[in-house]
Amino acid sequence: MKGAIGLFLLFIAPLPLAAAPPVQPTEMITIAPGEFIMGSSDKDIEWAAETFFSESLDYYRDETPAHMVNVPAYKIDLTEVTMGQYQLYMKQTGVQAPKFMDNERFNQDDQPVVGVTWQEAADYCATLSKRLPTEAEWEKAARGTDARIYPWGKELDETQANIRGKKDGYRYSSPVGWKKFGTSPYGVRDMAGNVWEWTADWYQPYPGNTYPNDFYGEQFKVIKGGSWFSNFDLARVTVRGKSLLDRRNNFLGFRCAQ
User: pLDDT for 69-78, tens place per residue?
Assistant: First the structure.
């Protein structure tokens, strides 16, 4: 009887919890080494101000001057990191859930993760032996070497990106990699609209920029790409958004580089 009880207990003993499945890293696109034109010329910002009915050029001054940048070869994620990927990462590491994880407008598995701080985004990338892209890497991947205004070219087509308005079909963030939206010359997706993206760089003036700006320094990180909450103007690849490192916004996500 004693042996039978032991055998019974053996069979009802709880099994060890299964390990969380590994985070599936986003497919990456290789960007060849070489130069590209970064930023905007005076003519470019005059065009932007006229096209989007801006009252002043001051908003665009931080994009100037246009300058050549030589970027070594690197890889960048095809799409933004998703809520589904971040949830697996949470199970593996025990990190806290980002803001908006419980909001059905933003928490679908194929939507970009939002509500993460700069450090949380950097930590996620590091777990996969990646990092956040530099501002130059992000911009080159978005515009290529032919000085595009948007990833798909120079056409002002509001159906090509998830931005504020009804023409793209989305009120909030859309699934990443949505093929109806325009891609960059390298085939990188989601680089205009959907969510702004963290970069590795501080918000500093470009070489040769002499316009005063009280926000320059090591307080803000550059964010790129515009979002579902942005006007079409802000989806231009040269726009330099900025954010404090601890911000958790529903229009700000990230992708990784390597």
Answer: 999 999 999 9
Beta strands in 144-249 (DSSP E): 196-202, 220-224, 241-244
**Residue 56 token pair:** 């002043």
CA dihedral (223, 226, 227, 230) positive or negative: positive
Architecture of domain 19-253 in this structure: Alpha-Beta Complex (3.90)
DSSP 3-state assignment of 6? helix
Cβ partners under 8 Å of residue 207, min gap 6: 67
If you search the block for the tokens 């809520």, which residue do you land on?
Answer: 83
CB-based contact 228:194 (threshold 8 Å)? yes
**Location of structure tokens 């970069």:** 199
- The string of pLDDT tens digits covering residues 126-181 is 999 999 999 999 999 999 999 999 999 999 999 999 999 888 889 999 999 988 89
237 in Cβ contact with 152 (< 8 Å):
no
Q: Under 8 Å CB-to-CB from 9, ≥6 apart: which residues?
A: none
